[in-house]
Write a structure and sequence with these properties.
7 helices, single chain, globular, seven-stranded mixed sheet, Spore Coat Polysaccharide Biosynthesis Protein SpsA, Chain A, binds cytidine-5'-monophosphate, 23% strand, 29% helix, alpha/beta, 11 strands
Length: 248
C-alpha cells in the first residue's frame, strides 16, 4: 500500500508555461562536410526538408511557445516554412560562428521569453520528450544539456596517425542539443564570450566559463547531427524505425 513516504510515480516538475519558453534553431552553418548543390539543412528527409523535422518536433513537445530559426543570409526562399506548425516562427540571419548565430536568434525571441531552448537545425530526429526533460533538468541551476555517456574507448591521436594515449572514458559525455538556459544567463555567457574573445562549440561551454552549473540530461542516440553524407542515410533509417514504433 502506498504511504506518504513511499516514492510514487515520478511527476514532471512544474515546467514554465510555453509562452515563457522560446526555441532558437541555429541552421546557418555552411555544412562543408556534406557537400552538394543543396545545403544539407534543405535536403529532403522522409519527403520533407530536413530542417522542418526539428521544427515539428519542437512544436510537438508542447513545451515551447515560439521558435526563431537562424538561416544563412538570403536562404529562406529556398526553404519555406511548414504551414501547420501551430507556433510562431521568426526567421533571422546567422553569423560567422555558431555562437554568433545563437546570439542573433536569442535577440529575436519575443520579450516575454525567459527560457531559451537551443536546438541544432542539423538534428532532425529530436525526441519531443527530450525537450521537456531538458527544461526540467535546467530548473535547478538555470541550465542543462542533452548528452550521451561515452561508451567507446577514447584515443588521443598523435603525429603520423599513431595513438598517443588512451583517455579514461569515465565521466565523459558527448554533447547534443537541446541545450536549455535561462535567457538572461545565456545572454550573459554570450556577451562575456564576445568581450573575452572566447569561442565555444556549444552553449554549455560558454555557460560553464561564467561559472554556471549545467545539468547533464541523458540524450538519445537517434538524436544524431547530420554532418556527413552517411548521416543522411542513417537519419532516414531512424525515421523509418520511429514511424514503425508509432513516432513521427
Ligand atoms: O558546426 P556545427 O556542426 O557545430 O553546427 C551545429 C549547428 O549550428 C548546425 O545546425 C549549423 O547549421 C549551426 N551553425 C549556425 N551558424 C554557424 C555555424 C553553425 O547556425 N555560423
Amino acid at each position: 500500500m502506498a504511504t506518504e513516504s513511499s516514492p510514487g510515480p515520478r511527476r514532471e516538475e512544474t515546467l514554465p508555461p510555453p509562452s515563457r519558453v522560446g526555441a532558437v534553431v541555429p541552421a546557418a552553418g555552411r555544412g562543408a562536410r556534406l557537400p552538394g548543390a543543396v545545403p544539407k539543412q534543405f535536403r529532403p528527409l522522409g519527403g520533407l526538408p530536413l530542417l522542418w523535422h526539428p521544427l515539428y518536433r519542437l512544436a510537438r513537445s508542447g513545451a515551447v511557445g515560439s521558435i526563431v530559426l537562424v538561416l544563412p543570409p538570403g536562404s529562406l526562399g529556398a526553404l519555406g516554412l511548414p504551414k501547420d506548425l501551430g507556433l510562431s516562427v521568426q526567421v533571422t540571419e546567422g553569423g560567422a560562428r555558431r555562437q554568433d548565430s545563437v546570439e542573433r536568434g536569442l535577440f529575436a525571441l519575443p520579450p516575454e521569453v525567459e527560457w531559451a531552448v537551443v536546438h541544432d537545425g542539423a538534428r532532425p530526429l529530436l525526441p519531443p520528450a527530450l525537450v521537456r526533460a531538458c527544461l526540467e533538468g535546467a530548473l535547478e541551476t538555470g541550465a542543462s544539456l542533452a548528452a550521451l555517456p561515452v561508451s567507446d574507448t577514447v584515443k588521443r591521436g598523435g603525429p603520423g596517425g599513431f595513438a598517443e594515449g588512451t583517455v579514461p572514458r569515465d565521466g565523459l559525455w558527448l554533447a547534443q542539443t537541446p541545450q536549455v538556459a535561462r535567457r538572461e544567463l545565456l545572454e550573459k555567457a554570450l556577451r562575456a564570450a564576445r568581450d573575452e574573445g572566447r569561442e565555444g562549440t556549444d552553449e554549455a561551454a560558454l555557460l560553464e566559463a561564467i561559472g554556471v552549473r549545467v545539468r547533464l540530461v541523458p540524450g538519445d542516440p537517434m538524436n544524431l547531427k547530420v554532418t556527413r553524407p552517411e548521416d543522411l542515410a542513417l537519419a532516414e533509417a531512424y525515421l523509418a524505425l520511429s514511424k514503425e514504433g508509432g513516432g513521427a
